[in-house]
């Protein structure tokens, strides 16, 4: 029997690679739904190619246009956030890949859990902002979240009994500015930052990789996925991106997962877990790789990594604030409104201004902290541009 899947964010970097994986295994997988924000040209093409019965478009105007184009076809178009949630609730769906970018992943993830769907989670912002809420809900329902983020997929694959774990070691390529003199960092343009040395990804995560915020978000993501406290999660720079992460055990053994940097591997793993399927990807050739090297991250050069760890340790609404401030700052940087180093400065400032809420958080607490932090960051950016 085929596994029925839904892909949220099908037009993005992860979404497109996920559909490639579906194409390799079309006798085992059926796509029942796809969703995006507004790229209806690609959604329409994907719906046709994969015979998808439901598409959802977050932008309501774009949804209307697609609905018009799909008249007379076998594909139904759903609109807005409600449409995306409706897609998640389709009764026959077995697994949902959450590959939207930013906090847009939070509501669909919670909806998927409520409706007992298996989740393959690429979207780390969901766990950064709402980690306690999401993991508690999943635990209550007995739903296992299968990570797609390569580092977390690696840890998931290497993890035996968490009681025996000494440390999680999350590897980072170090991004394109690992060796740039610190005084040059403010001159970095979006075009320079979008050239990642080892991974091809969406714009937001590529900038996060250049500031190392991505690694900070991943530390928080790991804390929630694996229930390991922050003092036992370390980031290590590994420029070749061959080791995707490691688990150190109390007896001194360290287990690692290796492979070419290719997101289709963790995507396929999450689709078929616990089974492994053959594909046509090039096997890893260690002699061709030659050398694997490691360094300690430079926290002076990359303050975002420090800020994320701090936010994680503070807890409560602070990680939602970190995430929201970062999302707004990254968009402003991509729009040439602020300098590269202003991203970390803004996140720092917004965290300092935040009125923290701790204890048991509900969805409203998280959404309110997110809304406040976005507004605060925008105001700070406007004030700066007036100076
Ligand atoms: P992209 O920017 O390439 O794609 C984002 C996708 O999400 C697009 O399909 C976009 O639609 C859709 N989208 C954005 N916002 C919404 C929304 N509110 N509602 C519905 N759809 C939305 O991102 P990536 O694929 O690079 O990343 C996706 C997620 O996976 C991120 O959270 C990222 O951190 C994570 N991730 C990505 C990796 C990678 O290699 N790319 C690696 C590990 C994790 P549209 O095209 O219409 O704008
Ligand atoms: Mg990653």
From TrEMBL:
Q: Matching InterPro entries, A to Z? A: DXP_reductoisomerase (IPR003821), DXP_reductoisomerase_C (IPR013644), DXP_reductoisomerase_N (IPR013512), DXPR_C (IPR026877), DXPR_C_sf (IPR036169), NAD(P)-bd_dom_sf (IPR036291)
Domain DXP reductoisomerase C-terminal residue range list: 258-375
Any one Gene Ontology BP term: isopentenyl diphosphate biosynthetic process, methylerythritol 4-phosphate pathway involved in terpenoid biosynthetic process
In this chain the 1-deoxy-D-xylulose 5-phosphate reductoisomerase N-terminal domain maps to 5-131
Specify which residues bind Mn(2+) according to the UniProt entry for this protein: 149, 151, 218
Q: Name one Pfam family in it.
A: DXPR_C
Q: Provide the E.C. number(s) assigned to this enzyme.
A: 1.1.1.267
Sites where the protein binds 1-deoxy-D-xylulose 5-phosphate:
124, 150-151, 173, 196, 209, 214-215, 218
Q: Where is the 1-deoxy-D-xylulose 5-phosphate reductoisomerase C-terminal domain?
A: 145-226
Q: What class of enzyme is it?
A: oxidoreductase
Xref: Gene3D superfamilies: 1.10.1740.10, NAD(P)-binding Rossmann-like Domain
Cofactor(s) required for function per UniProt:
Mg(2+); Mn(2+)
Query: What's the domain of life for this entry?
Result: Bacteria
Q: Which residues bind NADPH?
A: 11-14, 38-39, 123, 125, 202
Q: Which HAMAP family match?
A: DXP_reductoisom
Q: What does this protein do?
A: Catalyzes the NADPH-dependent rearrangement and reduction of 1-deoxy-D-xylulose-5-phosphate (DXP) to 2-C-methyl-D-erythritol 4-phosphate (MEP).
According to UniProt, the name of this protein is 1-deoxy-D-xylulose 5-phosphate reductoisomerase
Organism whose genome encodes this protein: Syntrophaceticus schinkii
Q: What is the lineage of its organism?
A: Bacteria, Bacillati, Bacillota, Clostridia, Thermoanaerobacterales
User: Gene encoding this chain?
Assistant: dxr
């Amino acid at each position: 029997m085929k596994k029925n899947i839904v892909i949220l964010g099908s037009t993005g970097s992860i979404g497109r690679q996920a559909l490639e994986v579906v194409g390799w295994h079309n006798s085992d997988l059926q796509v029942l739904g796809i969703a995006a924000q507004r790229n209806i040209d690609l959604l329409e093409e994907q719906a046709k190619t994969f015979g998808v019965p439901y598409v959802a478009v977050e932008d309501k105007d774009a949804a209307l246009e697609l609905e018009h184009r799909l008249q007379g076809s076998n594909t139904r178009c759903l609109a807005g956030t409600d449409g995306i949630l409706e897609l998640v609730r389709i009764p026959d769906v077995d697994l949902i890949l959450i590959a939207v970018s930013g906090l847009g992943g939070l509501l669909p993830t919670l909806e998927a859990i409520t409706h007992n769907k298996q989740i393959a989670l690429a979207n780390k912002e969901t766990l950064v902002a709402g980690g306690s809420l999401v993991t508690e809900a999943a635990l209550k329902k007995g739903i296992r979240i299968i990570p797609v983020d390569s580092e977390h997929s690696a840890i998931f694959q290497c993890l035996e009994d968490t009681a025996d774990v000494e440390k999680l070691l999350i590897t980072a390529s170090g991004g394109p500015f690992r060796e740039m003199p610190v005084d040059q960092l403010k001159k970095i343009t979006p075009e320079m930052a979008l050239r990642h040395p080892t991974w091809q990804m969406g714009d937001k995560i590529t900038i996060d990789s250049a500031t190392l915020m991505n690694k900070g978000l991943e530390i928080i993501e790991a804390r929630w996925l694996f229930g390991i406290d922050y003092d036992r999660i370390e980031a290590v720079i590994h420029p070749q991106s061959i080791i995707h992460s490691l688990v150190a055990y109390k007896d001194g053994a360290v287990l690692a997962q290796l492979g070419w940097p290719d997101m289709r591997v963790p995507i396929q793993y999450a689709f078929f877990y616990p089974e492994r399927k053959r594909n046509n990807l090039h096997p890893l050739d260690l002699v061709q790789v030659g050398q694997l090297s490691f360094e300690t991250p430079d926290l002076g050069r990359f303050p975002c990594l420090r800020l994320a760890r701090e936010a994680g340790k503070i807890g409560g609404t602070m990680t939602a604030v970190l995430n929201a401030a970062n999302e707004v700052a990254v968009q402003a940087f991509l729009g040439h409104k602020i300098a590269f180093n202003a991203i970390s400065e803004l996140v720092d400032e917004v965290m300092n201004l935040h009125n923290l809420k701790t204890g048991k958080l509900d969805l409203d607490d998280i959404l309110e902290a997110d809304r406040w932090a976005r507004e605060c960051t925008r105001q700070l950016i406007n004030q700066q541009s007036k100076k």
